[in-house]
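Risk register update: the risk of archive-format incompatibility is retired. Evidence:
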Amino acid sequence: MTGPDAAPTRIDTSRPHPARVYDWWLGGKDNYPVDEELARKILATDSTAVRGARANRRFMHRATRAAAQAGIRQFLDIGTGIPTQPNLHQVAQQVAPDARIVYADNDPIVLRHAEALLHGSPEGSTDYVHADVRDPETILRLAGECLDLKQPVALSLVALTHYLDADTDGDDVHGLLEQYVDALAPGSRLTLSQVTADISPEGVAKASELFRRSGTPFFPRARDEFSRFFDGLELLDPGVVPVFDWHPEREDVIAAKEGVAPLYAGVGLKH
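Archived output:
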């Protein structure tokens, strides 16, 4: 399943792409020299970059597992990124083999890897929508072909909102997320993580400037602004916290002792 305009767009290797930079930080192979160059520049100015990327990935695993253990059997992951093992569907279906997952992204390189994303458990289903987060109508319509939006859904926008900002490109980011949440049934969850300058001000400021110079908008958010994404939802324990502190497991505790990761994380429940 893909969107109406899902014909692959030529992958631009002349400028870095955040998904491929992230892939390099995670030790992936789906990046180009231009991505590695920016990834190394950011790492040189902000030593938390790799730690943050990996901590963020583990948060996604923990939040997905928690949702499945709580009985949710439908997952919508927007801003999927390049597949990295284990991916969200593998985590969810390990707990609940009958879980249904829809991934959504507008990156041509993710579209190229869509087939790899679609290998889930035989009891469940895994599908992909090629569409932009700024087009909730299309994403929700296509996701609704595989998911029952009248039943609870775990909606994930992990490490995505810091690429969206109202002041520069007209994105009403909080309003955008409200559109998604409004379409979900009671019992649904909203899982978010977001880069913040609260935790590593100097490093994040330098990394943000490097992203912007490369042509990628980048907007860290303070805790209060990030918390607004959960307005109208019940913030599940432990609330909005640094990414290491959201129900940490042993690996997170060890990594936290090695240094900070400049992201907030949280999960909200819709009543």
